[in-house]
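In this section we walk through a basic example: taking a raw amino acid sequence and producing a predicted 3D structure, encoded as discrete structure tokens. The instruction is simple. Fold the sequence below.
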Amino acid sequence: MIARTLYSLAWHLALPAVLLRLWWRGRREPGYRQHVGERFGWYGGRDNAQDAPPASGRTIWIHAVSVGETRAAQPLVEAVLQAWPDCRVLLTHMTPTGRATGAALFAGQAGRVQQSYLPYDIGWIAARFLRRFRPGICVLMETEVWPNLLHQCVRHGVPVALVNARLSARSLERAQRLESLMGPAAREISLVAAQTDADARRIAELGVTQVSVVGSVKFDVVVPEAMMQRAGELRAAMQAQRVLLCASTREGEEALILDAWAAAVPENVRLVIVPRHPQRFDDVARLVEQRGLRVFRRSGAGRESMRGAAGETVFLGDSMGEMFAYYGACDVAFVGGSLLPLGGQNLIEPCAVGKPVLVGPHTFNFATITEEAITAGAAIRCDDAGQMLAQAVRLLSDPEAQTAMGQRALDFARHHRGATQRTLALLRPLVEAAPDARA
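The resulting token sequence is shown next.
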């Protein structure tokens, strides 16, 4: 109780800085300056059919922080809508890119999928949010544990499920240092659907009593046919026989990759870089030019043409919502966040389209799934950017090895499907016990 009171006080004191940060980030991402009231549980008195709870059925609230979690939530949202035809899904986010991704994924479900920002983790704000939407259940994706939000859910009779859950050893250590705050919060979670045995063990150490291992719902994401068609268009725009994609790169990694590339430009290989965060697109373009290389931006397609030899012109993927298309267009994919100690990113998407995968040494956020992919021959771990480039060139120069590894990646992804239905089975008792919105 004391720890949560101090935590709430810290949130109140930080609010001016939080607002300033929203405004500051809005310089590059205007979405941060939109719907600000939602972050405080304020909806301007609106009470129309879109904003109000449904006339019948349940509101199933699913929280997906940003782009990755929103994509992961797609098969679960679709399964929920099919399982309970009279329900509405409230999909909440923390970032504009996550919200935009959700809007694109569920554009055809506007009547049944409503979006909002999750309010800041202050008790009275969380309570206002819950009174507004009256959800029957709260489903948190992956790693989201907010002490005041969980406490208010319990007070309002809203059961909480943490699904597609993962918890690295580092995150467990941080949570244990804050046990007086995070321990009670964890014990307020009704159930957890963990990705791996290791995740389940670490989550149980926090005090959650009902933990099941179901796998990752990301394996159940269906590759959109439209994205594969777009992949062909992208490949034509890249104007190269062979393509190396460096996807979801983080700050500091692009410089390492570009330095290795500039030192030994492979012949007729196109380097494609897709930064994870859109606010860094311009910075990465400058990094390319500083090394004497040309840059072609995806956003410039139709207004400019690729110039120079393949190895001398870098294709910058400065677009949103096209990651499957980039993976489909490449021959070999490096998954970023792993050259530096950032924990890595999920390698399921390139496996799902049958591409050989390369990762760096730092994949602690996705340790089990990465090791399984390496063991299955679907992925190769590299010590640094130079070794990553050498492995990529080796595969690009050996079509048979490239094809065989791509098939192993596809088999790996197919083998792990089914987590969505297992998760749905766990959620069913909580959803069906939730009150009807008319009650």
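Looking at the output, two observations stand out. The longest helix spans residues 2-25. The first strand starts at residue 59 and ends at 63. In the next section we compare this with other chains.
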